[in-house]
């Protein structure tokens, strides 16, 4: 027997995997907490250095010699600290960009890695957009490359088009968190779809690669099951995929649609959420949330379909990394099959 594998007579494999999963989650969360503390301390030093340069009215050109000599002397004193000439100017930009910003934005950028902050300085001017990307980075654990991709995709502008009713159906704090958790578009390129598939096949592929799907959904999701059975008044109903989100403390139902969004999907999801709240939700949990995941959506159609719905529902698109024209052709072929 391998010295790394021991017999666990009192636990079955599923129980052990749950313990392991929770232990890994605890360690990862602790590491994230520590990293944020380190980032916050670093940003505090950089902030103060930037404030010093700003208050001394040092500018590139007029003050270049002073800042260049400062960089040399600080490197000699603190060789392991990022005090290059370029970085010192970035610290000044950092301070001047945010010194009049609101507290929420300051708290967000304070715990980002410095490289992320430099990227935000370089790519964005609108503080509202900075706040959006900073919050998304923190909630979804984006690397610098993922942050850059999100900026290139103009995720901020896309997010301003509301395709959910969270603000109207959830308490304010809960709605704000739900806005941060759920995206308007999900990339399912990891499925390797290259030919028309039916909704059940799409579901089966997601189940087969559930770990990748959960990573795409973001932090905090736990998978409960697919074709989750609900029985009420002698009738059976089946939710395509059911998750639980730890931070939101809500059940999350996902319905998969291979074609474009239709208003009738909202009524069906509204029924599922009512049943989940009645049959499955615990007393200490928040209302269940529904996500309709489809190949395409028109935000005006979504807006009118959600107008008088009192359950929290969002509509999101999925991308399969295919050219848009080819994807539309595959969807049309499937709908006409």
TrEMBL record:
Residues 25-157 form the YhcG N-terminal domain. It holds the Pfam family YhcG_C. It comes from the Bacteria. Gene3D superfamilies: 3.40.1350.10. Residues 180-326 form the YhcG PDDEXK nuclease domain. InterPro entries: PD-DEXK-like_domain, tRNA_endonuc-like_dom_sf, YhcG_C, YhcG_N. PANTHER family: BLR8175 PROTEIN, UNCHARACTERIZED PROTEIN YHCG-RELATED. This is Nuclease of restriction endonuclease-like (RecB) superfamily. It comes from Dyadobacter arcticus.
């Amino acid at each position: 027997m391998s010295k790394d594998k021991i017999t666990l007579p009192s636990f079955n494999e599923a129980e052990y995997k749950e313990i392991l999963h929770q232990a890994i989650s605890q360690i990862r969360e602790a590491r994230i907490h520590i990293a944020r503390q380190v980032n916050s301390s670093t940003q505090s030093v950089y902030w103060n250095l930037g404030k010093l340069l700003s208050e001394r009215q040092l500018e590139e050109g007029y003050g270049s010699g002073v800042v260049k000599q400062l960089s040399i002397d600080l490197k000699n004193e603190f060789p392991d600290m990022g005090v290059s000439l370029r970085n010192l100017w970035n610290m000044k930009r950092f301070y001047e960009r945010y010194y009049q910003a609101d507290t929420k934005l300051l708290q967000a950028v304070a715990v980002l890695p410095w490289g992320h902050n430099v990227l935000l300085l370089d790519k964005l001017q609108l503080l509202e957009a900075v706040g959006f990307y900073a919050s998304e980075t923190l909630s979804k654990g984006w690397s610098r490359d993922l942050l850059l991709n999100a900026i290139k995709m103009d995720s901020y502008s896309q997010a301003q088009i509301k395709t959910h009713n969270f603000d109207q159906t959830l308490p304010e704090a809960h709605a704000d968190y739900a806005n941060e958790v759920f995206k308007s578009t999900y990339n399912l390129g990891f499925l390797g779809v290259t030919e028309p598939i039916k909704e059940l096949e799409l579901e089966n592929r997601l189940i087969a690669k559930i770990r990748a799907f959960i990573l795409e959904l973001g932090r905090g999701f736990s998978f409960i099951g697919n074709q989750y059975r609900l029985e009420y008044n002698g009738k059976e109903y089946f939710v395509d995929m059911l998750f639980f989100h730890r931070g939101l403390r809500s059940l999350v139902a996902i319905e998969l649609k291979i074609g474009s969004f239709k208003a009738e999907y909202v009524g069906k999801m509204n029924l599922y959420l009512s049943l989940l709240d009645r049959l499955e939700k615990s007393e200490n949990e928040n209302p269940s949330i529904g996500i309709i995941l489809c190949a395409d959506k028109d935000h005006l159609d979504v807006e009118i379909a959600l107008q008088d719905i009192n359950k929290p529902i969002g509509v999101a698109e999925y991308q399969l990394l295919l050219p848009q024209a080819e994807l539309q052709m595959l969807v049309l072929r499937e709908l006409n099959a």
